[in-house]
What does this fold into?
Amino acid sequence: MWRIIRLNLLAGVLVVLPLYLTYVILVEVFMLIDGILNSLMTKALVKALNLPLSDDQVFYGLGTIALLVILFFTGWIARNYFGKKLLVLFNQILDKIPFVKTIYKTLRQISEAVFSDKRQAFQQPILLQYPRLGLYTLAFKTQDTAGSVQNALNEDCISIFLPSTPNPTTGFLIFVPKSQVIPVKLTTEEAMKMIISGGAITAEQVSEMSAESSQDTSLSDDSSSGNEGSKTRP
It folds into this structure.
């Protein structure tokens, strides 16, 4: 009796906990993004439409819409000829400002490495023996080591980001000889899920879940097509 109750409670936790945590994360991310421009845009809208609202009243989602519009038009301007010229001029001005140029240039280079269409960072999971021989750690190749660091080393190396578990946003930067790197047939998503779960989720389980999701979508599409076909029959 108590065993059945315990198993049912555990099954309920396994179903509800991921849903609840997903909801909490999505709400927090939405509130963080929306809060950037929400207050400013709400005040502007209230003033423009002369709405009878207090100063602390907010329209949730208005800040997110405004931010997306700003990002879209900023990207559109930056991609055309005159926008590129303005961007180069803007970068040159900031590069001449002490302290500001260090922060801005570093963040710009990181953004280009992570978000650029031609990015290669974190796209190749690898294995290496760390923290000692005989122990294997999952990591990500960021790029081939170059510059002063490579010149100081005796053999060709690659730059490795070794993420922490279960928080992969922190970790270590390691320069590893290419001969000591072991290629592994994993996607970035599969490797990241293994790291976050502490190895509880394997690459095979990730592939199975993706296959089941695709199969469910296919069955749903087939069912919808069948229903539409039955409606059109005379």
Summary: DSSP finds eight helices and five strands in the chain. Residues 27-86 form one domain. Residues 230-234 have pLDDT under 50 and may be disordered.
